[in-house]
Design brief:
This protein is α/β, with parallel strands linked by helices. It has 2 domains: about 120 residues, no CATH class; about 180 residues, P-loop containing nucleotide triphosphate hydrolases (Rossmann fold), CATH 3.40.50. It is built from 15 helices and 7 strands. The chain starts with 8 loop residues before the first strand and ends with a helix.
Length: about 325
Amino acid sequence: MAAGTCGRNVTATARPEASGQPSGKPDLESPLHLHPSVRALAQADDATRLQAIKLKRWITHLPASRTLERLREAFEQEPGDRMRNLLLLAESGMGKTMLLRKFHRDHALPFDAAAGVQRHPVVLMLMPEDPSEEAFYVQLLKAIGAPVMLPSRRQRITTRETAFRLLRELGTRMLMIDEINSILVGTARQQRYFLQMLRFLSNELQVALVCAGVPEARYALLADPQIRNRFAEIVLEPWVAGPDLAAFVTLLVQGLPLRQPSPINSGKLRQLLVERSGGITQSICWALERAAVAAIQSGGERIDLAGLDRDEIWHGLQLITHTSTRLRPTALARAGH
């Protein structure tokens, strides 16, 4: 399932829902339907609460925790000639980028004043739109805050050696490359060359690689048997109307400063979320946040099935989430040659 990327860090266990009719008045005696960090905020004025809903929040749940554990295992392996690498695949909006950013944040180190160096045990970079060696190493140097100039053909090796030297000096143990599917815009020759470069980088630096992208990125890596044998696949599947989604929605709503308990523990409500969002995390989050805004503005102060089923809640969300990211025939043909 997806990572929760809807901030506050909401990790509380779901509590039983309270009964009763909604009321716009603050529930001063029973704010237990909210996460402890949000209870005081629920007593604030409407403008403050509406602004708080716009903030991004991290929702810790089982599927996200499992993915983070896989990343931790890859990070903690001993350097060697054949590192175990990961390919993280998910449709756009499932939260893979936020997972990478969280892992990157969690492993950030303070500035080493004695050595005068900012260590980077984990480096997170964005795959350049141009899948060339020059563009890749320029992007990598930017990710670690190194000053760079666009290299000429003669400077290509110098740029690569500079990147390698800095990663060794900074103590890098894991390199995470987001949007790896950008490799598919290249020709078949560019794709093969880039995959060779990744293999060389992993061997030379003895760091774990994490490549993340949409499902079509799988085809690019499958084209190289040596790359394929070095990567284990993690797939963040779209949500289904099961217990994992129930826990995720409960924790998300506990982080929204509504003054009344929301009757969200409903199979019909979860099915509605899945059908109208396509199971995409981002759309589920946006829909629930819009419903929370509407609940505050109307004075109802809770989210329910009827409120979530309104077309205005989903306006502009379904068109995005129902767009397929399946591999285009031209890209598939290139990947197969």
